[in-house]
Write a structure and sequence with these properties.
The chain has three helices and six strands, in the order H-H-E-E-H-E-E-E-E. It has 126 residues and is an alpha+beta fold. The protein has one domain: Nuclear Transport Factor 2, Chain: A. The chain has a six-stranded mixed sheet. The chain is globular, with a radius of gyration of 14 Å.
Length: 126
């Protein structure tokens, strides 16, 4: 896994976001993108704090959805400040048990030790 360092272009951040979404089938890889104080929120349902809780939440979702065969980003927008990158995406995931899931996600990537990690992610599934 790689990290985008401060001063790199949006292309690096965009690739990292795409990788974090498509790597969702690999829970440990997905969790590695989160800051130690990261938060994962399913809008209107539940939120969890910290890498271990995020890992458990993703594993629980995998039990319900089954294997994710493919995730593709339909659209995305990016905003950047000195210490944060805010990304909003619409995506589709094809899963073994639940079929095609359409969702929205907003991620806030925080600069930490000269690299960006997910500090907050909120998602919804239609």
């Amino acid at each position: 896994m790689y990290h985008c360092v401060v001063g790199e272009t949006f292309a690096c951040i965009r690739k990292k976001v795409s990788t974090s979404l498509t790597a969702a089938k690999f829970v440990n890889l997905t969790v590695a993108f989160f800051d130690e104080d990261g938060v994962l929120v399913q809008a209107g349902k539940k939120g969890v704090y910290g890498k271990e809780a995020i890992k458990q939440e993703l594993q629980e979702f995998d039990k319900l959805a089954g294997k994710r065969k493919m995730t593709k980003i339909i659209s995305d927008t990016y905003q950047m400040t000195q210490d944060y990158v805010i990304i909003t995406t619409d995506y589709e995931s094809t899963t073994e048990k639940m079929g095609v899931l359409k969702g929205k996600a907003t991620q806030i990537w925080k600069k930490s030790n000269n690299k960006y990690l997910i500090y907050h992610e909120m998602f919804s599934i239609a």
